[in-house]
Amino acid sequence: MLWENLKSSEFPEAVKKSKGVCVIPLGAMEKHGPHMPVGTDNIIAERTTLLAAEREPVVVFPTFHFGQVNGLQHFDGSICLSQRLTLELFDEICDEIARSGFKKILLLNSHGGNPAIAQCICNQALEKKRDYVVAFAESYWTYPKDLQKALKERREDFPYITDEDVAIVEDYFSKPRQAFHADFDEALLVHDADPTLVDMSKMGDEDGESTHKSDHLTEAKIYTGRNWFINFPNSFSASHFPYVNERLARAYTEIRVDYIASVLKAFKDDTTLLQANEEWNKSW
Ligand SMILES: [Zn+2]
Fold this sequence. Notes:
The protein is of the alpha/beta class. It is 44% helix and 7% strand.
């Protein structure tokens, strides 16, 4: 159930079906290597959340397209909002969502730069008494490793997968590969959404390997907001591996959607959060 597709009269029923849960997918507008669009995280966030919501009904709010990408303004296509504006925006958006009856709001993130601001949004919700709760979860706790495992352990669930596809996945894991941003994982998910948006023949046009220049900072647990960019000056973190096809894309998307559906179920079934919120509201 996509918020904007609901008729006003359908909201009370949607609140009931979703057990009061509204999910806001979080993406970002930023460079994704030489081979994928700047809206990659938005495309993945929206599609996987909507597919998961078909299995585990919740209302899905329009995707937040402008996640935290400060420090990447020099790449065309990046949209960098101030943190202050983002917090103010969510403060009001969450109030508005709750006004339509959704008392459990989940920020479901698909962009690596968003966790800190997402946690701030959750904390800001506690600045005053509210009749709703805000939570944050990552949508991306699946990796190509999970695809490899699924094809080994339950290949029958993916009847369209060929022996050649299995060989591609095994090849991917035959040596250490850089991954994280505009990598095999994201290419599979975008390819499944719209194969015309991914041009794997361009993947090798830029270097996605780490310079390791900021490793000493990361090892010392010093965060500067620049560590990542120092290691990946092309804002691209992936070894060249162009072997993406529609069958692998479909299988990996199924695995991701299964995972997200399990997150939605856990959040829907929870009763402790609203109870704690109510007790807290009464106590001061
Ligand atoms: Zn991404």
